[in-house]
Design a protein that fits this description.
This protein is α+β, with helices and mostly antiparallel strands. It is about 25% helix and about 30% strand. Helix 3 (about 90-105) links the parallel strand 4 and strand 5 (about 110-115). It starts with a strand and ends in a 9-residue tail after the last strand.
């Protein structure tokens, strides 16, 4: 398995992997694959990585800009993160996250937020932080990882592509 940047022609495989990964997830909106498509169409994928095994895409992670109190401050949102169901719980998602965070730092990202399981994302340094909030979600599940200081304060908004429907 190796991780690389998304390349032209990967779009159908990425869509399929994201769709399959979230099909039975209890927290899924069913729109995750469409969100990735909409982020790509809006040229809002700061980092888009695929995990490839035996020539097939079997994992994907997206990072896109977020705003804090309506301002672009160099922060990004992680997600969706997807691994094909047959490859879940084998470390592929962790490798995608680690590589994606490294790439964000390389391109000058100031920090990253994620909406997800605190036990899973905590292993990468994400923590619920009072300085940043996301309306309508339990604070424990909205987490931030600052790369630099000071950390911004305010309400976070994801890219409009996150409203993409099925």
């Amino acid at each position: 398995m190796h991780i690389r940047d998304e390349a032209p022609g990967d779009e159908p495989a990425i869509h399929a992997v994201v769709e399959q990964a979230f099909r039975s997830a209890p927290h899924s909106s069913g729109t995750e694959a469409h969100i990735v498509d909409a982020l790509r169409a809006a040229d809002a994928l700061t980092v888009s990585l695929v995990a490839v095994e035996d020539g097939a895409v079997c994992g994907h992670v997206a990072f896109s800009p977020v705003t804090v109190d309506g301002a672009a401050v160099g922060w990004h949102g992680l997600g969706p993160l997807a691994v094909h169901p047959r490859r879940q719980r084998q470390g592929m998602g962790s490798q995608l996250v680690l590589e994606g965070l490294a790439r964000l730092r390389t391109v000058g990202g100031q920090g990253c937020v994620v909406l997800g399981d605190p036990l899973y994302y905590g292993r990468f340094g994400f923590r619920a932080r009072a300085e940043l909030t996301l309306a309508g979600v339990p604070a424990a599940y909205f987490q931030a990882l600052p790369f630099t200081t000071p950390m911004p304060e305010g309400s976070v908004d994801y890219h409009a592509a996150f409203a993409a429907g099925a």
